[in-house]
Design goal:
about 525 residues; alpha/beta; seven-stranded parallel β-sheet; four-stranded antiparallel β-sheet; binds 5'-O-[(L-methionyl)-sulphamoyl]adenosine
């Protein structure tokens, strides 16, 4: 793998981030961290989507400029991602000067090539969706199905993009590349939507929407959100219509573009069409994740159940985001909807991270100190030809083999499924400890046997720390530290015996990597 470029949707800045936005950034950060264990050239882009009528209206209502509103809210997203250890390479804002200049050039090129034309139009416009809707998409009462608001009849002379010109090419691409849309069960949905697509309006009259990027050579029109927003994936890399940057040439096409299922149409129809019109290759995968509900209900301001990601950390007094990251990432199988609930959160992270994984390391290191003064002896290592405790070598090999299993899940963006595999190694290793009872072996003075059980577990813990690292980077680093294991190692370089013989640890250096989340700390009122 020579490079890996991945992106998230860029969030609207008309509010603060909630755990739905966080879910996507966590999934993408986990992918980024995993793929950085497989290549040195990983690039992770996220950011905020800042233009449009909604921002203009919200800012006006608050008596501030749109830019002031964007600065304020964009910072909230940055702060939240910092608290969640989202380790992006660039945070693009669609108000960034470099982005705006390239969007203008992209627009101009599309006009020059005849892919964008001017046309007088009357349609049903939903300001919530910021797009025109077809009559057949409305509810029985004539409302927008997402915003339950009556769309306005808007009549304007706008620029239009010839989406219809690319319909057949996109259908062909989807059919020939069954893994272009992930999960594949969503491809049919997109093929159905492609049936009745029309050319799309890509500009607005300046008299209606001032908060947007001007069309070059036509200051009466501003570029409408989707062409501005979607282009961020290439403008961030320095795509220039005449002279693309080295970075762009190295990283494009994206390896995966992570988005929510609600914006799949824009990413699997509009975006490929724009790229085809620019003569650029299409992203390798569009991964549409499901939606996060709260206690099985849709998150909404009116229900008062919108939860900010940092408030979960505060409510549970967590100084690191690992548990929350782990919980969110494992909340749903690939592409399916997930749910957040306080009780489920506590139960899962206590069971997986504290009781199974953390405890296993802690008990094993404590026994190493108790029975061997923290020293791993040469004769403790199990090999293919010699083992004193039956099954030790086989278990180590099985754990090592799981690296490929986990990688394979990641190749298909199955993040929750990969985590399940990791926990299954933890469970198998816990069973190995129970079955071989090193405390009994020590009592019976079978010290080599006892040492072999402990060393086998510690070697496996190195593999586990590497595999859990994308989900729980702080816990993994702490585990690795206590094991003297190099957490920056590439997955391909990990072997069955990562523990070095000699003194590994002292009593004082041993500490739990994750403390149980205390049920009394969960105060719902703090989270709102
Ligand atoms: N600005 C557009 C995206 C442009 S990408 C070129 C947008 N913004 S958004 O703020 O409404 O949503 C950003 C992302 O968050 C989307 O991928 C969306 O699916 C995701 N989510 C918003 N609410 C969500 C949940 N409740 N659950 C999971 N993801 C959710 O769309």
């Amino acid at each position: 793998m020579d490079k890996f470029y991945l992106t998230t949707a860029i969030d609207y800045v008309n509010g603060a981030p909630h755990i739905g936005h966080a879910y996507e950034k966590i999934l993408t950060d986990i992918l980024a961290r995993h793929f950085s264990q497989r290549t040195d050239n990983m690039y992770f882009l996220t950011g905020t989507d800042e233009h449009g009528i909604k921002i203009q209206k919200t800012a006006a209502a608050r008596g501030i400029t749109p830019k002031e509103l964007c600065d304020e809210n964009s910072q909230k997203f940055k702060d939240a991602w910092k608290a969640l250890d989202i380790n992006y390479n660039r945070f693009i804002r669609t108000t960034d000067e470099d982005h705006k200049a390239i969007v203008q050039k992209i627009f101009k090129k599309l006009v020059e090539n005849g892919d964008i034309y001017k046309h007088s139009y009357q349609g049903l416009y939903c300001s919530g969706c910021e797009c025109f809707l077809n009559e057949k998409d409305l509810t029985e009462d004539g409302l927008c199905p997402d915003h339950l608001k009556k769309p306005e009849i808007v009549s304007e002379e706008n620029y239009f993009f010839k989406l219809t010109k690319y319909k057949d090419a996109i259908i062909k691409h989807i059919k020939e590349n069954p893994d272009f849309i992930v999960p594949s069960f969503r491809a049919n949905e997109v093929l159905n939507q492609l049936e009745d697509i029309q050319d799309i309006s890509v500009s607005r009259a300046k008299s209606n929407v001032q908060w947007g990027i001007d069309v070059l050579d036509d200051p009466e029109q501003s570029i409408y959100v989707w062409i501005d927003a979607l282009s961020n994936y290439i403008t961030a890399l320095g795509y220039d219509t005449e002279n693309p940057s080295e970075m762009f040439k190295k990283l494009w096409p994206a390896d995966v573009q992570v988005i929510g299922k609600d914006i799949l149409k824009f990413h699997s129809i509009y975006w490929p069409a724009i790229l085809l019109a620019l003569g650029l290759p299409l992203p390798k995968h569009i991964y549409a994740h499901g939606w996060i509900t709260i206690d099985e209900s849709k998150m909404s301001k009116s229900l008062g159940n919108v939860i900010s990601p940092t408030s979960v950390l505060e409510a549970f007094k967590l100084d690191k985001p690992d548990a929350f990251r782990y919980y969110m990432a494992t909340s749903a199988p690939c592409g399916k909807d997930g749910n957040y609930s306080d009780d489920d959160f506590k139960e899962k992270v206590n069971a997986h991270l504290a009781n199974s994984m953390g405890n296993l390391l802690n008990r094993t290191l404590s026994m190493l100190v108790k029975y061997f003064d923290g020293e791993v002896k040469e004769e403790f290592f199990a090999t293919a030809d010699s083992e004193v405790v039956k099954g030790s070598y086989a278990l180590s090999k099985e754990a090592l083999g799981k690296i490929k299993v986990v990688e394979n899940h990641f190749n298909h963006f199955e993040i929750a499924e990969a985590a399940q595999e990791i926990i299954s190694i933890v469970d198998a290793t816990n069973k190995y400890v129970t079955d071989n009872a090193p405390w009994t072996l020590a009592k019976e003075e079978k010290m080599v046997e006892c040492g072999q059980v402990l060393t086998t577990v510690l070697n496996i813990m190195c593999i586990i720390s590497a595999l859990i690292y994308p989900y729980c980077p702080n816990i993994a680093a702490d585990m690795a530290k206590q094991l003297s294991f190099d957490i920056t190692k590439k997955l391909d370089d990990i072997t069955v015996n990562e523990i070095k013989s000699g003194k590994l640890i002292t009593k004082e250096e041993i500490h739990p990597v994750f403390l149980r989340v205390d049920s009394e700390l969960a105060d719902k009122s703090v989270k709102k």
